[in-house]
């Protein structure tokens, strides 16, 4: 609506154009000043100590101030000025020295000076070897780039590929892992990287060497060569082949700590323990029990070992919260565990090398390496999870006696100071029995123990450094026993495999049997072949083989014509393998299957042999004959008694000792059998007496009928409520007619009619019978019943005396 007083008049047009022009002119002038300041910047100026001393744009400077970054570290002072000038950099610095900001600040400045927008596509690509490190880099980027208008994305896998592909086209900065990024470059149609300005490789030595070589080479082919490249790591690679693959142009090598006396932080205390293989878990358990109020990070060589140690220790409850992290977990679970350990005050995290590089866990007190790392560089990265940013930390390495000499040489060559310590005897405790009990009670723990055993032994076998990792020195039987396993698992080894390539092979190429984690050893899945492909490979099917090859060649020609219409970006190696397998000429010959039947091995090299496996009757002649058994009287089976050979008999020891040992064992057996027989005899005697008492009461007419089935008499002087009763109470309760100071017609018992005061007091053995004295008789002890006197030698005290008394009364 128009303002009051302006009715009938046209509103004056707003003057927006001059303000836009002024604003653009001002931005242009600021960019020119910023560029001039960068051109005049001296990278070796010692006065550059704070971020405010650098020629940075206002959005970046304000983001650094809001994130409380003010003073630069050594690697930042050396790398950022060179990167601002557009130079390629090879940066090497100790762990925890702030390498992340050393490449994120140049990335933001590069795109800001180029006035990058969402319509310009991808401008910066940051590659990380692990998902956890990529997430950490992305969080730092969000903090310092909060005032910029760039769009940033995180591509690490674990989510829908389609959802990520829809957003990639609008991203200016991408933080990713190599495998997932290569998948988008191959499959996402509208993803364009031709305008890329800067490429960053964090932990470059790991990306270039371990498992990512093929993925990185294929990824570099998609990127333009006219770009700036930054490589950062704690252990940098200087190989010319790596630099040539990345198309680096006169790179500047920045190593601020190369002249330092040690390759690790000075605030880090490093120790190692020499322990046998079967005592590793005992030592680890004792360490955890002694450091309950600490934050501990424990490294193991494979995911199977992580799961076994976590599941067994969790059930044994050491008294400290336990967590575990490995590459086979879902992405949501990995993020949750990482956040929980970062926020915890006291906790223990069992992990693989998936968190060995770059991850910033705050306030880690101890880094424990239960398994020896494959090289000194991996050791440096592992211990770098503690003592970060000039804080204190401690690290302990477990070494086998066979690994001590070789690995200490590797550490000395890398300028790593380490001292040997000994475990106190009081702190040692064997947990073998507890592990055996867990493996017996829980089948999943036993399964994980077997997998942990296999993965560790296989990793040692595949290591290249045979001076450190000596497979023949391992006591496998004792090691399996220390894990609680009932026996030593059998292992099949592959020769000629590269452990680094196997440990970092993509998940799709790993088989389920050999999977350990993203850093664990694995092998490529066997190619699935159709029925017609198997027929085509047979040598005796010439007609069908040639016919099928002709069909396959026609299909390949048609596919090639379609490829001309819609070209693909890269041809996968697996396609060539499939074509060779379909044609039959390029497919490798399959080895015949061997089946073990006892001690004999049956080679399945024909269709008849396969049918033979289905027939139990035909397989019987290949099987071992069983042992004949005999059943005793109790139904227990035992082998037929056979005489022992004279030589075997003499091996067992002297005859006198054997005779003495035999007599001792048989004597013990006889004693045990005697005790059992006596107990059975007592029980039978008691039952016989009870039956006799019941029968007598029935005859006397005291029971209305036969005793009910559930009725029982108390045994051994116990009542129905478990209280002690008088064994003579049954006969004392019998009704007595006549005198004795009672009414003749009453039939009351002692327990029913008389109180405790009315009951006759028991006479002691030295008291005389008053009734006999009054009558003047010489009888020692008399009882009156209906006018008749019954003589007794002494007062009845036993069950037999009372029975005789009752019988005399009833006869009258």
Automatic annotation (TrEMBL):
<dbReference type="GO" id="GO:0005730">
    <property type="term" value="C:nucleolus"/>
</dbReference>
<feature type="domain" description="Helicase ATP-binding">
    <location>
        <begin position="80"/>
        <end position="254"/>
    </location>
</feature>
<feature type="domain" description="DEAD-box RNA helicase Q">
    <location>
        <begin position="49"/>
        <end position="77"/>
    </location>
</feature>
<feature type="compositionally biased region" description="Basic and acidic residues">
    <location>
        <begin position="14"/>
        <end position="29"/>
    </location>
</feature>
<keyword id="KW-0547">Nucleotide-binding</keyword>
<keyword id="KW-0539">Nucleus</keyword>
<dbReference type="InterPro" id="IPR011545">
    <property type="entry name" value="DEAD/DEAH_box_helicase_dom"/>
</dbReference>
<feature type="short sequence motif" description="Q motif">
    <location>
        <begin position="49"/>
        <end position="77"/>
    </location>
</feature>
<keyword id="KW-0690">Ribosome biogenesis</keyword>
<dbReference type="Pfam" id="PF13959">
    <property type="entry name" value="CTE_SPB4"/>
</dbReference>
<comment type="function">
    <text>RNA helicase.</text>
</comment>
<protein>
    <recommendedName>
        <fullName>ATP-dependent RNA helicase</fullName>
        <ecNumber>3.6.4.13</ecNumber>
    </recommendedName>
</protein>
<feature type="region of interest" description="Disordered">
    <location>
        <begin position="509"/>
        <end position="536"/>
    </location>
</feature>
<keyword id="KW-0694">RNA-binding</keyword>
<dbReference type="Pfam" id="PF00271">
    <property type="entry name" value="Helicase_C"/>
</dbReference>
<feature type="compositionally biased region" description="Basic and acidic residues">
    <location>
        <begin position="520"/>
        <end position="536"/>
    </location>
</feature>
<dbReference type="InterPro" id="IPR025313">
    <property type="entry name" value="SPB4-like_CTE"/>
</dbReference>
<dbReference type="Pfam" id="PF00270">
    <property type="entry name" value="DEAD"/>
</dbReference>
<keyword id="KW-0347">Helicase</keyword>
<keyword id="KW-0067">ATP-binding</keyword>
<dbReference type="InterPro" id="IPR027417">
    <property type="entry name" value="P-loop_NTPase"/>
</dbReference>
<dbReference type="InterPro" id="IPR001650">
    <property type="entry name" value="Helicase_C-like"/>
</dbReference>
<dbReference type="GO" id="GO:0003723">
    <property type="term" value="F:RNA binding"/>
</dbReference>
<feature type="region of interest" description="Disordered">
    <location>
        <begin position="1"/>
        <end position="29"/>
    </location>
</feature>
<dbReference type="InterPro" id="IPR014014">
    <property type="entry name" value="RNA_helicase_DEAD_Q_motif"/>
</dbReference>
<dbReference type="GO" id="GO:0016887">
    <property type="term" value="F:ATP hydrolysis activity"/>
</dbReference>
<dbReference type="InterPro" id="IPR000629">
    <property type="entry name" value="RNA-helicase_DEAD-box_CS"/>
</dbReference>
<dbReference type="InterPro" id="IPR014001">
    <property type="entry name" value="Helicase_ATP-bd"/>
</dbReference>
<comment type="similarity">
    <text>Belongs to the DEAD box helicase family.</text>
</comment>
<dbReference type="GO" id="GO:0003724">
    <property type="term" value="F:RNA helicase activity"/>
</dbReference>
<dbReference type="GO" id="GO:0005524">
    <property type="term" value="F:ATP binding"/>
</dbReference>
<dbReference type="GO" id="GO:0006364">
    <property type="term" value="P:rRNA processing"/>
</dbReference>
<feature type="domain" description="Helicase C-terminal">
    <location>
        <begin position="280"/>
        <end position="429"/>
    </location>
</feature>
<feature type="region of interest" description="Disordered">
    <location>
        <begin position="686"/>
        <end position="812"/>
    </location>
</feature>
<keyword id="KW-0698">rRNA processing</keyword>
<feature type="compositionally biased region" description="Low complexity">
    <location>
        <begin position="701"/>
        <end position="714"/>
    </location>
</feature>
<keyword id="KW-0378">Hydrolase</keyword>
């Amino acid at each position: 609506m128009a303002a009051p007083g302006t009715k009938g008049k046209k509103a004056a047009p707003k003057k927006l154009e001059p303000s836009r022009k002024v604003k653009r002119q001002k931005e242009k002038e600021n960019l020119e000043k910023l560029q001039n300041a960068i051109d005049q910047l001296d990278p070796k100026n010692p006065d550059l100590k704070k971020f405010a001393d650098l020629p940075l744009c206002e959005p970046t400077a304000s983001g650094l101030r809001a994130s409380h970054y003010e003073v630069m570290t050594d690697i930042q002072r050396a790398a950022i000025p060179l990167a601002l000038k557009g130079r390629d950099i090879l940066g090497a610095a100790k762990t925890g020295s702030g390498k992340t900001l050393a490449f994120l600040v140049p990335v933001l400045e590069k795109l800001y000076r180029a006035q990058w927008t969402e319509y310009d596509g991808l401008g910066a690509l940051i590659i990380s070897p692990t998902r956890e490190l990529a997430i950490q880099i992305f969080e730092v980027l969000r903090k310092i780039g909060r005032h910029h208008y760039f769009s940033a994305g995180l591509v690490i896998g674990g989510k829908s590929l389609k959802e990520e592909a829809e957003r990639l086209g609008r991203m200016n900065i991408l933080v990713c892992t190599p495998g997932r990024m290569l998948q988008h470059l191959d499959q996402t149609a509208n993803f364009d990287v031709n305008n890329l300005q800067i490429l960053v490789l964090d932990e470059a030595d790991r990306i270039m060497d371990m498992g990512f070589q093929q993925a990185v080479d294929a990824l570099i082919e998609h990127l333009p060569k006219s770009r700036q490249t930054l490589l950062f790591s704690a252990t940098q690679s200087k190989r010319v082949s790596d630099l040539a693959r990345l198309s680096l142009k006169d790179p500047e090598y920045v190593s601020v700590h190369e002249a330092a006396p040690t390759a690790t932080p000075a605030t880090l205390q490093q120790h190692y323990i020499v322990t046998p293989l079967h005592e590793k878990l005992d030592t680890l358990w004792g360490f955890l029990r002694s450091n309950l109020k600490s934050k501990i990070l424990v490294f193991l060589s494979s995911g199977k070992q992580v799961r076994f140690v976590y599941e067994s220790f969790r059930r044994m409850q050491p008294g400290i919260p336990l967590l575990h992290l490995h590459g086979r977990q879902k992405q949501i679970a990995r993020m949750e565990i990482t956040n929980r350990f970062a926020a915890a005050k006291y906790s223990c995290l069992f992990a693989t090398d998936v968190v060995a590089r770059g991850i910033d866990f705050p306030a880690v007190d101890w880094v424990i390496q239960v398994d020896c790392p494959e090289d000194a560089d991996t050791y440096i990265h592992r211990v770098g999870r503690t003592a970060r940013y000039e804080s204190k930390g401690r690290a302990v390495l477990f070494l086998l006696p066979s690994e001590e000499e070789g690995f200490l040489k590797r550490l000395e060559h890398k300028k790593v100071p380490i001292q040997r310590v000994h475990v106190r005897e009081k702190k040692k405790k064997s947990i073998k029995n507890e592990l055996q009990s867990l493996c017996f009670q829980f089948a999943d723990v036993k399964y994980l123990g077997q997998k942990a055993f296999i993965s560790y032994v296989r990793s040692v076998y595949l290591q290249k450094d045979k001076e450190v990792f000596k497979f023949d020195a391992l006591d496998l039987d004792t090691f399996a026993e220390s894990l609680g396993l009932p026996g030593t698992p059998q292992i099949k080894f592959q020769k000629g495999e590269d452990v680094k390539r196997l440990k970092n092979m993509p998940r799709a190429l790993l088989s389920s049997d050999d999977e350990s984690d993203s850093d664990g050893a694995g092998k490529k899945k066997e190619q699935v072949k159709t029925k017609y492909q198997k027929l085509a490979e047979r040598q005796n099917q010439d007609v069908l083989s040639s016919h099928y090859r002709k069909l396959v060649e026609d299909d390949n020609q048609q596919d090639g014509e379609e490829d001309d219409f819609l070209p693909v970006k890269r041809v996968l190696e697996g396609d060539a393998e499939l074509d060779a397998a379909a044609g039959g000429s390029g497919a490798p010959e399959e080895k015949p299957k061997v089946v073990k039947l006892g001690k004999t091995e049956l080679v399945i090299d024909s269709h008849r042999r396969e049918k033979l496996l289905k027939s139990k009757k035909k397989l019987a002649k290949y099987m071992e004959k069983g042992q004949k058994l005999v059943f005793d009287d109790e139904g227990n089976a035992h082998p037929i008694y056979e005489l022992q050979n004279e030589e075997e008999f003499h091996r067992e020891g002297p005859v006198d000792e054997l005779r003495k040992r035999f007599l001792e064992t048989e004597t013990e057996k006889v004693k045990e059998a005697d005790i059992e027989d006596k107990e059975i005899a007592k029980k039978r005697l008691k039952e016989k007496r009870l039956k006799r008492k019941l029968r007598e009461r029935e005859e006397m007419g005291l029971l209305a009928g036969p005793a009910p089935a559930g009725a029982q008499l108390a045994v051994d002087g116990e009542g129905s409520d478990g209280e002690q009763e008088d064994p003579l109470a049954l006969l004392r309760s019998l009704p007595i007619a006549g005198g004795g100071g009672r009414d003749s017609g009453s039939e009351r018992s002692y327990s029913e009619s008389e109180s405790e005061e009315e009951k006759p007091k028991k006479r002691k053995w030295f008291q005389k019978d008053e009734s006999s004295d009054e009558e003047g008789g010489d009888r020692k002890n008399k009882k009156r019943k209906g006018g008749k006197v019954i003589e007794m030698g002494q007062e009845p005290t036993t069950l037999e005396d009372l029975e005789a008394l009752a019988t005399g009364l009833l006869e009258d």
